[in-house]
Amino acid sequence: FIYTYQVQATDHCGNNSTPGMSGSNVLLSGQNINNEYARLQWSPYSEWKGGVANYLLERRQENNFKVVAKLSSNTFDYTDYDFFVHNEPEAVYKVTAISAIETTVYAESNMLELPFNLVMGIPNSFTPNGDGVNDTFKIAATAGTQMLLSIYDRWGNLIFHSVDNSASWNGTFH
User: Which of 127, 129, 138, 159 has the most crowded Cβ, counting Cβ within 10 A?
Assistant: First the structure.
């Protein structure tokens, strides 16, 4: 939803200030397109008399937002082709509108969370014969997925164990 708001202060004596300028939020929406890229759109910010200088599209990486793109004041969409390159379970975005008159004045959008779709590839066989083709058993998983791989023999004895997502088993045991 897009909201319009205005701020007015009241002091301890009950006196009201003059209402401030009207403002409205920037509404960010988007989609995860097959874990390949993110398609993002946002509403324009139109409450400043001098308009918007530009928009900053930011993405959270390791708990900090980093600018992905600096976009013109008449751009309201972006495709992030680096959507799936980070080791996070989801991509979190926000858009910041920067005032054309005072660059220290800005308006931020909502935060948009786009979760990655879990994708796993589990082989049904492998040939650990040293020929360089299909010699290891390895599970391929979506980035950010935590995995536990345990392999048991037919008597229930643990013969391989790993919590490393990049681990593979070469078929040997001790």
Answer: 138
